[in-house]
Amino acid sequence: MVGKIDRLPYCATSLVALLTPGIAAAQDAGDLAHPSDVVVTAQRREQSVVDVPLTVNVLSGADLTKRSATSLQDIADNVPGLDVFSQGGGKQLIQIRGINSLRGTSSLVGIYLDETPLTGSQDGFYPVYADAGTLDLARVEVLKGPQGTLFGEGAMSGVIRYVTNDPKLDRIGGTVDYSIFATDGGSASAQVKAALNLPLSDTLAVRFAGEYQGNGGWLKNVGTGAKNVNSNQIYDGRVKLLWQPNSRLRVVGMIDIRHNNEDSPSYANILPYEDGLYRHAIDPYGRTSGVSELDLYSLRIEYDLGFAELMSNTARSRRYSNSNLDQIYYATDDPAAPITLEIANTRYLNKQSITSQELRLTSKGDGPLKWVVGGIYKDDDLLRHFLDGAELLYPPSTTVTILEEPIRTTSQSWAIYGDASYTLFRRLELGGGVRYSHDNRSFTDGDLPPLSGTFARVTYRAFVKYDIARDANLYFNVGNGFRSGGFNAVVNPAFPPPLTYAPERSMAYEAGFKATLLDGKLGVNLAAFQQYYRGQVYDRVVLTPVFLQYTANGGNTRIRGVEWQLTANPARALKLSASGTVMGSVFIASSPEAEVDFPPGTSPLALPKYSIQLAASYAFNWSAAIPGFIDLDFNHKDKLVGGQGVTRIVTGPQSFLGASLGATIEGFEMAIFARNLLNEHSPYYPTLGGIGGVPRPRQIGFRIGKAF
Fold first, then answer.
1. Which helix (H) or strand (E) holds 151?
2. What count of other Cβ atoms lies within 10 Å of the Cβ of residue 405?
3. CB of 163 within 8 A of CB of 140?
4. 690-695: average pLDDT
5. Is residue 172 classed as helix, strand or coil in its secondary structure?
6. Out of 29-38, 94-103, 479-488, which region has the weakest mean confidence (pLDDT)?
7. d(CA 46, CA 476)
8. What is the pLDDT of residues 627-678, one digit of tens each?
9. 3-class DSSP state for residue 667?
């Protein structure tokens, strides 16, 4: 590992040296886009973000590069209401406005790469979701609240959309970026990524993008004394081919391959927390390495019919992970009667393939009526398997072998949807949409009889938007979401859990104000929301007469909150932004079992009561020929309270501070950067299991990049 990282500076330097002189990549702060100039496709058509009647946060690819962001975790640090709790290797828990997908049949946050859904059936044991990275992105859009009408079942709390750069026919160009950094108490890391756009003819162009990350570890295995055990290597490559024979037809094919090899997960002990140290439950010399892979193939066809644009997207994705587990789970934190559950060293396999086909027709023109109609079919196959079996020790003197057989979940789903809006009197816009979803699911647990079920639901949304002035509006929207019910694995045939759990639903209301004021110098985005999460599933744990862990419907939860975002450009060289959330949740109805696990006054959701994000960018000149910049960003989140029953676990609060100081010399942008300057090290999320993901400690590094 060290050898690979040490060679990277020389490889990257050689690559940069081959580049011909080009234009500077840096922008001064005054050239950064005003909110009204930011274009998104949150409603499946291009719009100014100010005109979209819901909360949308946008980070451009240039912003992510300047902040040295490489993962969804880094993105979440700059988006209010989005929380990502990563354990490395694609194992991450994602939540928007307090709702996450720790359990259940599918993700509650939809993740898209361009037009392709990356989320489908979920694991049910480990939160394993695709991390698409930040390679060669045009922007990332984060949509808040239920998006079931336009984005489907897996979008009950929101959507994250990665929009990649398409090939261009009119020029040769590209970017290269290299960084190296040190981690406090850990080993060195280096990362390099590049993109190249090549027109092949007047109608054909190709774009290549690639990335390598050699991330040094920082955690210690207290059983063996080994240091920096959680290093990892990420390989990411993408090829996009554009064929545009005329002004009406565009065909874009894409292959994206992203692999993550890790020496050990990036999680440590929570209960009790031991200075961020990694601990083995049984075998300190057992295997810890794992792999996580995401391969995507897609073909997008766009045809201009004049009155509307027809889009077809055909895609297939393959996700694979193979992790080694050796863990301690705490059933109670009572010092007088400690109970621990231990899983012996075993390999845990997770394989998934998703094939999807979507057709969509979107109206064109500037008339008062705008509409979208479409349909999608998705075939989803998920296999999970303890390859060596799993031994559960409860208490440590009792050993039970469990989950030796593979568990397969399949889903064949389809949906049709429509969405429209109409503008009256040039200021008042009324709109809404409806979607019918149909999902056939099956569940096979080893040699046990298979289980199956059909889940169907109509979801809808409606909104009203009133333009107070140009680039200023008030809006109100209401929408609902849906997730299919599912099935539980039979861990112990002598004491089987409930075999099924019911579907979940959500209903959300949001009122907001968006504006770009003072000739573009001030941007305002305020929203108040209330969401009802009905039939919420959770992880039910029963200790007697035997240990059982299964998914159950707990009841109905109400979430209320306020979210705000302000951007200011008081001078051409200075850009400021501040955003945050205030949220709270409470059970308004619960099952008898859930009342035991979550006593009155406790929340079933682990969400920060408040968060705040601050950022500043200032452009200046080191000399007449050398422009410079300084960027600062700060993120603070309140504590999280999780666990259930007698075990209530608290993590946080957390504060992260980042900074970057740079210059552009002969077209090369160079910067010294720091992340997690405050050296925050408390776990991200209060997991019942006693282990959890922890942030990388303070990092100091150097980055050099060039656009040509």
1. helix 148-151
2. 16
3. yes
4. 76
5. coil
6. 29-38
7. 20
8. 999 999 999 999 988 766 656 677 879 999 999 999 999 999 999 999 999 9
9. coil
Q: How many Å separate Cα 588 from the centre of its chain?
A: 28
Distance from C-alpha of 563 to C-alpha of 608, rounded to nearest angstrom: 13
Report the alpha-carbon distance of residue 583 to residue 561 in Å, rounded.
Answer: 4
Distance between CA atoms of residues 287 and 462, nearest Å = 52
Q: What's the DSSP call for residue 594?
A: H
Instruction: Count CA atoms within 13 Å of residue 193 on its CB side.
Output: 24
**459 closest CA partner among 495, 514, 498, 503:** 503
Q: Which two tokens stand for residue 574?
A: 């200075």
Dihedral angle at the C-alpha atoms of 586, 637, 538, 353, nearest 10 degrees? 140
The Cα diameter of the chain in Å comes to 79
Q: Which residues contact 379 (CB under 8 A, 6 or more apart)?
A: 354, 355, 356, 411, 412
- CA-based torsion, 77, 83, 87, 92: positive or negative: negative
Sheet strands (E) in 593-690: 610-623, 626-637, 640-644, 647-651, 654-665, 668-675
Distance from C-alpha of 669 to C-alpha of 687, rounded to nearest angstrom: 41
Structure tokens, 346: 């075993």
* Amino acid letter, residue 499: L
| First-to-final CA distance of the chain | 32
Q: Which residues pair with 110 in a beta bridge?
A: 159
DSSP symbol at 573:
T
Assess contact for 433 and 458: CB atoms under 8 A: no
Q: In a 10 Å sphere around its CB, with 0-12 CB exposed, 13-18 middle and 19+ buried, how is residue 600 labelled?
A: exposed
Q: CA 210, CA 258: separation in Å to the nearest integer?
A: 10
Q: Cite the DSSP H helix spans in 18-147.
A: 61-66, 72-76
Tell the residue number behind the tokens 């899983």, with chain if given: 343
Distance CA 140, CA 164 (A): 9
Q: Beta strands 654-665 and 640-644: pairing type? A: unpaired
77: left (phi over 0), alpha (psi -120 to 50) or beta: alpha
pLDDT for res 47? 87
Q: Going by DSSP bridges, is the β-strand pair 522-542/504-517 parallel, antiparallel, or unpaired?
A: antiparallel
Q: What is the DSSP string of 428-440?
A: EEEEEEEEEEEEE
Cα–Cα distance, 352 to 321 (Å, whole number): 9
**DSSP bridge pairs for 320:** 293, 351
Residue with tokens 């290797």: 89
CA-CA distance, 453 to 464, in Å (whole number)? 37
Residue that is written with structure tokens 């960018």 in the block: 617
Amino acid sitting at position 70: T
Q: Whole-number mean pLDDT of the chain?
A: 85
Distance CA 31, CA 314 (A): 37
Q: Which residues contact 18 (CB under 8 A, 6 or more apart)?
A: none
